[in-house]
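Annex B.
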Amino acid sequence: MIRVLLKQKLDEKSFKERRRITFGEVSEATGISRATLNRIANVPGYKTNTEIISSLCGYFECTPGDLLLRIPEEAEE
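Helix-turn-helix transcriptional regulator: predicted structure tokens.
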């Protein structure tokens, strides 16, 4: 399973900028709906697409490798 580290990247950016960043702000900056951001952050294994990953990478100024984590199959069980 691939996991999107959205909450972690949001926390890192909030800490770096010394302010609270909301899903609403991310939504406005990326064009990704808050509902989709919420599902990505809270639903394990939520399937998304490369366009969304690209938008999030642009917002967080990172690469896909910084945003995605592969969870081995045996760890899922």
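Residues 10 and 16 are 10 Å apart (CA to CA). The two ends are 11 Å apart (CA to CA). Further annotation is deferred to the next reporting cycle.
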